[in-house]
TrEMBL record, chain A:
<comment type="similarity">
    <text>Belongs to the TRM112 family.</text>
</comment>
<dbReference type="Pfam" id="PF03966">
    <property type="entry name" value="Trm112p"/>
</dbReference>
<dbReference type="InterPro" id="IPR005651">
    <property type="entry name" value="Trm112-like"/>
</dbReference>
<protein>
    <recommendedName>
        <fullName>Trm112p-domain-containing protein</fullName>
    </recommendedName>
</protein>
<dbReference type="InterPro" id="IPR039127">
    <property type="entry name" value="Trm112"/>
</dbReference>
TrEMBL record, chain B:
<dbReference type="Pfam" id="PF08241">
    <property type="entry name" value="Methyltransf_11"/>
</dbReference>
<feature type="domain" description="18S rRNA (guanine(1575)-N(7))-methyltransferase Bud23 C-terminal">
    <location>
        <begin position="209"/>
        <end position="276"/>
    </location>
</feature>
<keyword id="KW-0949">S-adenosyl-L-methionine</keyword>
<feature type="domain" description="Methyltransferase type 11">
    <location>
        <begin position="52"/>
        <end position="160"/>
    </location>
</feature>
<keyword id="KW-0489">Methyltransferase</keyword>
<feature type="region of interest" description="Disordered">
    <location>
        <begin position="233"/>
        <end position="252"/>
    </location>
</feature>
<comment type="similarity">
    <text>Belongs to the class I-like SAM-binding methyltransferase superfamily. BUD23/WBSCR22 family.</text>
</comment>
<dbReference type="InterPro" id="IPR029063">
    <property type="entry name" value="SAM-dependent_MTases_sf"/>
</dbReference>
<dbReference type="InterPro" id="IPR039769">
    <property type="entry name" value="Bud23-like"/>
</dbReference>
Amino acid sequence: MKLLTVNFLTCAVKTCKGSPAAFPLHFRDVELELHDVEFQPDFIRNIITRVDWEGLHKMANELNFPTIPEVKPDGEALQSEQLLRDLHRLLLETQVAEGRLICGNCGHEYMVKEGIANFLLPSHLV
Amino acid sequence: MSRPEDILPPDLYYDDNESRKYTTSSRIRNIQADMTHRALELLDLKSPSFILDIGCGSGLSGEILSQEPAEQGGPHTWIGMDISPSMLDIALQRGVEGDLFLADIGQGVPFRPGTFDAAISISAIQWLCNAETSDVSPEGRLRRFFEGLYASLRRGGRAVCQFYPKNDAQRTMISGAAIKAGFGAGILEDDPGTKNSKLYLVLTVGGGGLQGDITGVVDGMDDVDVQDARRKAMQRGQGSVSRKGDKAWIKRKKEQQIKKGKVVKADSKFTGRKRRPAF
């Protein structure tokens, strides 16, 4: 599962809807992998406006990644190929293979196995 | 014709065997590819986009999204949701590019508001009309799905859901639920009246650079007849604004009484007329 996807995920439990702690989900025991993905500058320019930069910061801290710019790059900065390639590497090529995602509000754990997250909920949480 | 929806719930129906049959059958693959291309045409995406594939199965339609050539706005990045583990297992073996989720769409769509540019769903949402346990209802599942989908699409986004309703009641139930969630909804029917007829529910989210609803979407497409049911519904609404006690109301009531065989005073020029204010 791409880190980009994790940046958009929230807890699916009904009581967490609208709660600020339900985003971002926290990592536990994760294994990361690098997959080759075709570089698409247009897609990154399109999606970067919707990426939650604060959430990305928290995520990078949890994973002990260095060097993420303090503020979200926009406008002129998005013309730089080096920056786009870095973002591409971080958001699309870095993928979660195994581990757990945990909601900061209700503590529900979502298992990730072979890159597939299990978001099935027992019916009392829906 | 047998419907898988009537046999078992989707996670059990699409077991290893059935999933393999579905994915390897060249007939199904062709139909699925045609429908995905049609849905893409309706989505009309201009640049590489972020798409949600609802009921992605083994990733047959996702593959087409990934392979969309650059001159037609592709390739797109997608996220797939499906309830059948066997289907997802096959998707994994085939090495599809999208991210996969094991999730029940009737439980909602677990993404932040405004995440996706578009959503696509091929032959999936009719499964929402089934409730497998007594603590859920088809209406509740449809409501959660469409509300979640509405929230997760960006303003001006679109969703195209191809589906096989069992009957007209299901068709109305599904499109009604979409409208209730806030979508502008319309149904496009390909090859109507034939065995191959296909229904596409075209949903639009207001705002952004989109003009209106499905009629704006199909504008400029060949061979599309527009049947607008809204105008008729509006006229019907205007016709019945007679209030209790006014002339139309009295006349209607009198007719009802006559039909019942009651003795009713004949209409005169004074029927339903206001009395003068008396001193």
